[in-house]
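G., the chain you wanted modeled:
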Amino acid sequence: MTRTPLRPLARILDARQRGENPDAIERENLRLRHEAMRDSARRRAEGRLVVLAGAFVLAFGVVGLRMGLMAAAEPQEPRAELAGNPIVGQRADITDRNGRVLATNLSTYALYAQPPKMIDRVGAAKKLAAIFPDLDEERLVKDFTGTRKFLWIKKKVSPEQRQAVHDIGDPGLLFGPREMRLYPNGRLAAHVLGGASFGREGVNSAEVIGVAGIEKAMDDTLRDPARGGAPLVLSIDMTVQSTMREVLYGGMRLMNAKGAAGILMDIDSGEILSMVSLPDFDPNDRPRPLTKGDAGDSPLFNRAVQGVYELGSVFKIFAVAQAMELGLVGPNTLVDADAPMKWGRFTLREFQNKNYGPLLSVSDVITKSSNVGTAKLALQIGPERQKAFLESFGVFDPTPVELVEASGAKPLLPPKWSEIVAITASYGHGFSASPLHLAAAYSSLLNGGTKVEPTLLKRDGAPSGDRLVSERVSRASAKMLRQVVLEGTASFGRVPGYEVGGKTGTANKPIAGRKGYYKDKNINTFASVFPADDPAYVLIVMLDEASDNSGQEPRRTAGWTAVPVAAEVIRRTAPLLGLRPKIEPVAASGVTLASE
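Predicted structure as tokens:
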């Protein structure tokens, strides 16, 4: 601002010439200066008021907006105020591929006691023992009347039990909120889900952690708050899973088996649509692990993943596929199948000492399940190439599936892969693998020849894997498996309307802790594919110590036990998978219509 002098010389001289008082000019200029200063101060004050009012409006707007967001937000799981990291009880749901709930959370309460606040300690102990029969009354009295200031009584109580404790009316008996894991389908998919339990616990909340199955393998994902509570979507289809379990359970009982396993897999994506292991359990009331005896006898044991067995002749198709891939043979090439076969001090025989020789086509080696024919192909291939081929299919490594038990299920291999090992391995003896290994290997062979890894998580599209065999060999293998059902050992595997292919495998169980095998205890397996003309799904059915006793003598081969069970699974599940049956042509009646 330009400052005007109070007594400008020019105006003073002019005023004196006119006889006016020069002091009036100074007073007038002083008045104008004061007015300008007052106007400037008023404008500054008004600006400050505007800024202050804007700040108040903004602050109250932010507070109001935050209050609105908090009112509209979903309530969060309470957290205990403890030193260190807080306990977060929230855990995401698990659903099947169609969004049906497999595992969720249920609000409940835990019961605890603070003895110093109790009025009638002995009486409360008696009443609690009456409400909860599994509690020891004497132990409760000892805890309540001792020096303890806090103790848990029950980690989970039902609404009826909570009301009964309320009716006791003792101020020292208190409840803490809990979220427990609930499996609404009970035993269905028990080995897939595994189970959950409480980890760290506080009075107001508790950690829910996975203890087995996919609950433990994906524990970090299920507890990740960054996911915003989004469910974990599995590849399992609950409708197919229910059907598979029902048929497999009935087949296990009908065939007098001690256990069973079934896997249904999409051969392109590797998605496991159903995985069943029997006997099973209810993850809502998970039993304790066995402390003695064979772990395989526990219902917690997942035969589909943890069980490694000599699976028998189901592996013959890999010897034939490798021989075709190397250009050694074709489907119609004749091979020496004259039985028995001598190899050093070993004698190889066919089932029931049959002789399918002297010559068999490669296709008939699979159709008739010739041990000798397969062994001759294995010798042409050689041990090193055979081992590398099987290894490329992943049958020598733990399966990379999302189950915590899978990492420990490593196949059992001989220390040295010699020629005699190559011979026995060609027909599925001398090494052990799991049914899941077999499902993944069959999928990789029959989907066009590219490697696929199994998964229990829903995938978007089929991943591209390494090529293991050519499409020509893959198609030829599927045709051979189809012939096994039409003309070979799996004739009970026919399903009207669906072209089923597959290979049977019957292997004697080794005697635990001793050399040799049981003669009357088998692992019976049927590895199948459908539709065989355009493979889409692989189904593995395995029965442990099965025996068909409907005839005069027990029949313990896979063709009599595992095959009819697998056929029933396919008959029921194929429509659920969207596969339309093919109308088979009706044979001509032999009557000719003559024109008039």
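The radius of gyration is 40 Å.

Shout if anything looks off.
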